[in-house]
Amino acid sequence: MSVTVQGVSRRFGPAQALKGINLSTRNGEFVALLGPSGSGKTTLLRILAGLDYPDEGSVQIGGREMAQVPARSRRIGFVFQHYALFRHMSVFENVAFGLRVRPRRERQSEDEIGRRVRRLLERMGIAELEKRRPEQISGGQRQRVALARALAIEPRVLLLDEPFGALDAAVRHGLRRWLRDLHTELGLTSLFVTHDQQEAMELADRVAVMEAGRIAQFDTPDAVLDQPADAFVAGFLGQAARLPATLRNGMLEFAPLPLPPLPSTVLTCAPHLAGPVLAFVRAHEWEVVEQAQPNAVIRSCRPDGSRAHAEIGMDGAVIEAELPFPGLRPGTACHLRARTARVFPAA
């Protein structure tokens, strides 16, 4: 089911949460809304669900305008960050809730509701938990219950708001992989809110990077990483150092930092740029050169598999770099240089 958002704006008093949002998904697509806190991600999700309404613009689901369609009639499945399960109900009753509160003419028999709920619990891998209450199961199991409840109503669109934000790293990683497999199996159009870049890149077919109520870029994970649309996207994604620089005579100069200049042929930038610019260098794009005049000092070095994450001090600046492991010891003088950079106009 396609979702189309056109010119959607939303204000809360003097604060504008959304500013003319345009977004269109394909049938069966998995879309991530990625951005920092306050960028408008959850507000947009709530408007899609019918839990909030835009001041301007329109929302269409499957080609139908949603302005006059209440939340209960949109057939939207919504999974909240903190589960929102009914504590006094069993797992079975939580999943069955949306089916039992339907209008009488649409409500199925108790036998059919029971069969559907148990099929979902089986698919979620939690069939043995149907009689337990939420406080008797783990966080990862609660999230599966919340997802089963959202799917029970056979939604046209699935919305997930920070679905793994309350879970520890190991459980979160396993559930991400499981959710992606489930999405592929169901073919359901899904939009999920996250501030976790790795989560967005791992799960989504396309990523909408949001900043201050606008969509800065909407593209595939590879494209937003390799071809950022503006300085915000370049700085937000990929653990990039943001450095003032100057493009002059085909060279990128990093003064006042004592970094070697880079020829423009290795840069990602608009061809017309010249003069003051902002250069973004990702952690893996740095190189420490041995047997060269030192221009920096290793402040810390933490191993991570075959690489090491280093903090490198340079004239008061701190640069994060990924280096081959074993890395250099803290306190070691080194010569640091960039292999490439993404360049945008100076603010």
Automatic annotation (TrEMBL):
<protein>
    <submittedName>
        <fullName>Sulfate/molybdate ABC transporter ATP-binding protein</fullName>
    </submittedName>
</protein>
<dbReference type="Pfam" id="PF00005">
    <property type="entry name" value="ABC_tran"/>
</dbReference>
<dbReference type="InterPro" id="IPR050093">
    <property type="entry name" value="ABC_SmlMolc_Importer"/>
</dbReference>
<dbReference type="InterPro" id="IPR003439">
    <property type="entry name" value="ABC_transporter-like_ATP-bd"/>
</dbReference>
<dbReference type="InterPro" id="IPR027417">
    <property type="entry name" value="P-loop_NTPase"/>
</dbReference>
<dbReference type="InterPro" id="IPR017871">
    <property type="entry name" value="ABC_transporter-like_CS"/>
</dbReference>
<keyword id="KW-0813">Transport</keyword>
<dbReference type="InterPro" id="IPR003593">
    <property type="entry name" value="AAA+_ATPase"/>
</dbReference>
<feature type="domain" description="ABC transporter">
    <location>
        <begin position="3"/>
        <end position="237"/>
    </location>
</feature>
<keyword id="KW-0547">Nucleotide-binding</keyword>
<dbReference type="GO" id="GO:0005524">
    <property type="term" value="F:ATP binding"/>
</dbReference>
<keyword id="KW-0067">ATP-binding</keyword>
